[in-house]
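no rush on this but wanted to send it before i forget. theres a chain ive been looking at and ive put its sequence and its fold in token form underneath. i want to understand how the tokens follow from the sequence so walk me through it. thanks a lot i owe you, the record is right below:
>
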Amino acid sequence: MAELDELATRVRDFGRSSAARAPLYGRLAPCIADEPEILELLGVAPAEQQLPVLLFAAVHHLVLRGDEPDLERFYPNLVGEPDSGDPFPTFRECCRRHSDALRALIATRSTQTNEVGRCSQFLPALGMLADEVGTLAHLDVGTSAGLNLLLPRYEYRFSPGGSVGGPSPVVLDCATRGGVPVPATLPDVGASIGIDIAPIDVRDDEEVRWLEACVWPDQADRFARLVAAVELARQQPPDVRRGDAIGALPELVGEASAHGHPVVTNSWVLNYLTPSQRTAYVATLDDLGNQRDLSWIIAESPAQTPELPIPAASPGEDITVLSMVTWRGGHR
């Protein structure tokens, strides 16, 4: 377990960096950092998961389950007009009242993200690849519930750029700048396979609730997209496999290649790996690319994943960079 001082620093840093995107968590974080009783809850998580977002997700899970109606009034994704008062006293009481339940969640869960809006970032790159190689086979690493695998079933509205796909109950709006190559039509995808170390089954209400809990409450639009995407996925669940990305990739790339040109995607996943794991991940893709034509679309933070072959960020800049790496004829 990390020392309480270190956990407090992580929570304070998270609060400062996320305040603009997650005002509720930004307000709670400095108060949590001064409460050893709450910080200790994170100590039951594996070392790599002792993160502020895991604590926040565990509490959000209880709120979504209906266990904390008093705290719910502060969550913008759950009420039309959230309470503007101080949420921390109610948050602290929730942690005290449900300490056993929170420890159980924190000890057994990991942070999961399925921001389907990322599909609108992937689509132009996939369109370019489809123009080059034809039918694609999509492999999504760190897929969680596999919602990014439903990319061909969503509707996209690029501004500027026009609409692609649809009609769909899941509509993804995306503002563009510069010469973004928005495709005229959705690419042909012959197979879609996801892999995750702890996949979410979209047919399981409790599992889906955890996925929803990992969305920051202030991102109400993202929460609504997730709910709509889960409902769409339940009609025809995606093909999601349990496994380690590095170990499972060779077999899955081989399987996917029978259905089209293999394209590996990952988005805000590799920051959860250690530097040595990221290096091994890149080496695995290089080995596979030496054997067959392969493409890799990356949406990660350069600052948090310096081992990846993507443009470096400026000092102090924490942005997501979309990059594409290709192997053709055994050469990257």
